[in-house]
Design brief:
four-stranded antiparallel beta sheet, binds magnesium ion, 2 domains, six-stranded mixed beta sheet, elongated, binds adenosine-5'-triphosphate, alpha/beta
Length: 599
């Protein structure tokens, strides 16, 4: 959201073409809206023309009968025009909303499929803005932007044409103040546009600030930083107000100016005709009155679109800026490659890392020449200082990131050759930071996979030892977990994620133990749960608990992205190397249960 909105050419045709491409499934309605724009342009000057005709030919001659018919015709025209207008507004808004709906699906689908590295680069707020606010602005291109502008311009052309047809000299006189209006409109448009861009940036900044600080309110309060944060908030809020006031100022100048120009035009009309009236016969003078009335109506019809056209251009412009950004998301080709067709029925769980090197950012390698292997059913513990690359190793296994060198094989097949879905279905993951979505406990365990029966969930929960706890929650499995699981303790959240992993009965399990300390009871539960989780499957555990590490078939000691030592607990201790030093530093102070260790 921190990204600034900048101006954009209004008529970037390739962009417009792309926006309208999204309306192509609804071609019929699109054509209808344009047809209606044309019809409205044709219909709108007819009524003033009829009035002129009536006054000149029938009122003067007192033809009451014809007058009634003309009145009926007028009413008919009015109803027709109103119906056209209604359908035009409805259809353009319908088109806008429908395109918005389709685009939002496309963008959200795209975002979900993006490579994780994209999320490392793009703030979440930005992606939220793309999916929600920006797409909403594209709606305006249809409902308040391009199509209404086309309708207005057509109306203006047809009215001016009629005026010229009736009396070109009078038209020129009436339109004499027009150049002023055009210049004023241009200045107004530019000024409002600048203010709008400021308003948008201010809103984005406000959104990001409020969102972030409400999420982190605990930190703000804990560090008594309320005053400082408040001052910052006030500053952004004031900018929002100032930008809006600027826009309001432009409006307050522009609209009275338009009124003045309309008044001058009317004045010109009266002045021009008054000059002539003296030299006219009675018949000509009467014709003149019809003309003056029709011109008054024409001028009114003309100024109505002129008043709002500047606004509409701004709306169009903002819509174009938004669509440009939305298309950038859609054009992002860094999505997860799903190539690879291998999809075995069952994975045995043989695992090999063969000289793997990996960098998140160009050549800054966080893993260097990593080689190890595990037989099916073995447990591998990875230990190492914070930042040594433990989480990175396991992120590679289910292809969240792509490696630059080496090969990772499961059951002797390169993981790149697996069908992504088959690979991920067979690898269960428990992450370091457990993420829960707002929703029921059940939904959080099954991730809304309705094919998982409740009994299976209960069975898994019992195995992990969480069933009783869940049943004690108000509503049991329907208990509503608040955003990010805020109403549950860290230990409880982790245990829930264990159920999630167990339920999918994966052949390979990845477990990134949370470093946070939990109470002794939960600690014991977690230990037992981990034993059950790893039993019978190949497991890679980033371990912080001595109990987990001890039981592992192999311990990999990682330091700055390189493997320092591999072996069992006893082997590594007798070796007296890196591991034994770490062990001495971290565990000897604790007895059995380690807390808060970041080995
Ligand atoms: N998404 C990312 N983009 C860029 N660099 C990253 C990313 N994630 C991690 N790193 C970097 O990679 C290195 C290894 O990080 P990793 O998360 O694998 O460490 P870790 O061993 O799991 O640490 P901890 O014990 O604190 O969880 C660190 O230097 C980190 O700064
Ligand atoms: Mg980690």
């Amino acid at each position: 959201m921190s990204e600034k909105v900048k101006g954009k050419k209004i008529f970037d045709f390739s962009l417009l073409k792309r926006v309208f491409h999204y309306a192509s499934p609804y071609k019929k309605r699109l054509y209808w809206s344009i047809t209606l724009a044309v019809l409205l342009a044709i219909v709108s000057p007819i009524r003033p023309l009829l009035i002129q005709l009536t006054i000149n030919n029938y009122v003067r001659n007192g033809l009451a009968n014809t007058l009634i018919w003309i009145t009926i015709l007028q009413i008919g025209l009015l109803i027709t025009e109103t119906l056209f207008r209604f359908y035009f507004s409805f259809i353009t808004a319908w088109l806008g909303q429908t395109v918005v709906k389709d685009l939002r699906v496309a963008v959200y689908h795209k975002i979900l499929g993006l490579n994780l590295s994209q999320f490392d680069k793009t703030p979440i707020g930005t992606l939220t803005t793309r999916t929600i606010n920006d797409i909403e602005s594209i709606n305006d291109i249809f409902s308040d932007g391009l199509i209404p502008i086309i309708a207005d311009i057509l109306s203006i052309i047809s009215i001016v044409a009629c005026m010229f047809y009736i009396d070109w000299r009078l038209t020129l006189a009436c339109l004499a103040p027009f150049p002023i209006l055009i210049v004023a409109t241009y200045i107004f448009k530019e000024s409002v546009n600048k203010s709008f861009i400021r308003v948008r940036n201010a809103i984005a900044a406000l959104n990001a600030f409020v969102q972030e600080h409400i999420t982190g309110v605990q930190i703000v309060q804990a560090f008594a930083a309320e005053d400082r944060e408040f001052a910052k908030f006030k500053k952004i809020n004031k900018e929002h107000r100032n930008a809006n006031v600027n826009a309001i100022f432009a409006y307050s100048v522009f609209f009275p100016l338009v009124e003045i120009i309309i008044a001058i035009s009317m004045g010109m009309l009266v002045w021009w005709e008054a000059r002539q009236v003296l030299s006219l016969s009675a018949q000509q003078a009467s014709e003149l009155s019809g003309k003056i009335i029709s011109f008054t109506l024409f001028l009114n019809l003309l100024f109505r679109p002129l008043r709002v056209i500047a606004d509409k251009f701004n709306i169009l412009q903002m819509g174009m800026v938004a669509s440009d950004r939305v298309f950038k998301v859609l054009d992002n080709d860094d999505f997860i490659k799903t190539e690879g067709e291998y999809k075995p029925e069952k994975i045995n769980g043989k695992l090999e890392f063969d000289n793997v090197s990996f960098a998140y950012i160009d050549h800054r390698y966080v893993l260097k020449n990593i080689s190890f292997s595990a037989r099916p059913g073995e447990t591998i513990a990875i230990v190492g200082h914070t930042g040594s690359g433990k989480t990175s190793i396991i992120s590679l296994l289910n292809r969240l990131y792509h490696i630059q060198h080496g090969e990772i094989r499961i059951d002797d097949v390169n993981i790149e050759d697996y069908k992504l879905e088959a690979l991920r279905k067979n690898i269960g993951v428990v992450l370091q930071d457990v993420f829960l979505f707002s929703g029921s406990v059940m939904d959080n365990i099954t991730l809304r996979n309705e094919s998982i029966p409740k009994e299976k969930v209960v069975e898994a929960a019992k195995l992990i030892g969480m069933h009783e706890f869940i049943m004690k929650l108000p509503g049991g499995y329907d208990y509503n977990v608040m955003e990010r699981g805020g109403t549950l303790s860290l230990g409880q959240r982790q245990l829930l994620s264990f159920i999630r992993a167990l339920l999918y009965n994966p052949s390979i399990l990845i477990l990134d133990e949370a470093t946070s300390s939990v109470d002794t009871e939960s600690e014991l539960m977690i230990q037992e749960a981990i034993d059950k989780l790893v039993a019978g499957r190949t497991s890679i555990v980033i371990a912080h608990r001595l109990s987990t590490i001890r039981k592992a078939n192999q311990i990999i000691v990682l330091d700055k992205g390189e493997i320092k030592e591999i072996g069992t607990h006893e082997e590594l201790l007798t070796k007296g190397g890196f591991y034994s030093k770490l062990h001495e530093m971290q565990f000897t102070k604790h007895t059995g249960l380690s807390k808060n260790v970041s080995i």
